[in-house]
Amino acid sequence: MNLGGFESSIAISKKTAVGGKAIRDYKSLLQKQSRAEARSYSRSSILESISGNVVGNDNKQCFHFGINVCDTFVALADATLNGDVIFGKNSDRPNGEVQDVVSCPATRNDVGDLLQCTSLQIPQAKQTYAVILSKPRWMWGAEMGANEHGVAIGNEAVWTTEAYSESGLLGMDLVRLGLERGASALEALHVIVDLMAAYGQGGNCAEHFDMTYHNSYLLADPAEAWVLETAGSYWVAEQITSGTRSISNGLSIHGKGDLRHPELDRKMDEGFDFAHLFSPPEAWGTVSPLSREGRVRQLCQQSEGVFSLQTAKSVLRDHSGGVCMHGDFETRGSQVSTLTEGGCEHWFIEGPFPCQEKYQKRVF
């Protein structure tokens, strides 16, 4: 791409976002026809609706783009009641998809060992760390999780102007790989971007219909937290230094960030804005406080200074902005972690819905 004179264009395809009617029609067809026929149907019909929030921007109407699914947040020590770091995420997936909470032990592996991810086989690391994962049963990767070193990671679907690939590592694969191979949030970030450079991000993110997207990540440990956002092969990362931060389904790093893809480093100018450059024009503008993204941000910010484990759980159970999601896409899993140098604790809900279930503490 030409970073100097980039003109934004919408790269959304019919297999990128899912409307409720299309899912219902698809499930009905799946009961009557072969999987191959149903998948063919999904390619032509799955984009029935795009959800978003229209807000004002310089007297123009702007549209926040894509399916509103999943939110991830962190509250740093200066924002919490007890001085711990608190991480939280809801995983919103297609209605009825099974999502498990699993524990995987640390491993030592031989040189030349291979690892089968969801659709790609890659070299295995010499050592992996113990992890707790919340993951759709059909895939190798995970929506969110934590490792024995106190690293927690969650990812979000984002839609950008870069092309989508039908092959590569899923964002969920990269979440798991970051946790298995990263002893800190920053180390896990480098694991993810290095694997992206080697194998690319891509592949189908749903089991029974076509859905592809790019990814953003929130990575936290007891000492620091980062947001990593991607657009195709490009990426930028921003360190979170105080307060609270959340990510949703759009690019949110305005400016050049603290770390970035080497090509961006070479070519950017003083006015560089990653989110503006790689977001469709429909996504430009101020986030509405009535949107899901805006609601999570508002709930986190208004609790700064007294943010607690119970605050995190209440945010993930909120219905005002659809944070606890019901419908054709629904919240299928939830995680809250408290991260301190003295020890980390992790609570999960295995299955729907946070508003109806209790968080269960999980250990390695």
What are the key terms here?
Penicillin V Acylase, Chain A; alpha+beta; 20 strands; single chain; 8 helices; globular
List the SSEs and their pairings:
Blueprint: H1 20-32, H2 35-45, E1 54-57, E2 60-63, E3 71-75, E4 85-94, E5 99-104, E6 107-108, E7 114-116, E8 121-123, E9 127-128, E10 131-136, E11 144-147, E12 152-158, H3 171-181, H4 185-199, E13 214-220, E14 225-231, E15 234-240, E16 244-247, E17 259-260, H5 262-267, H6 274-278, H7 292-302, H8 309-316, E18 329-340, E19 343-350, E20 360-362
Helix pairs in contact: 1-2, 3-4
Concise synopsis of the structure shown:
By secondary structure, the chain is α+β, with helices and mostly antiparallel strands.
What does this structure look like?
The protein is α+β, with helices and mostly antiparallel strands and 364 residues long. It has one domain: Penicillin V Acylase, Chain A (4-Layer Sandwich). It has 8 helices and 20 strands. An 8-stranded antiparallel sheet has the order 5-10-11-12-13-14-15-17. A 6-stranded antiparallel sheet has the order 16-3-4-18-19-20, covered by helices on one side. Strands 1-2 form a two-stranded antiparallel sheet. The radius of gyration is 19 Å and the shape is globular.
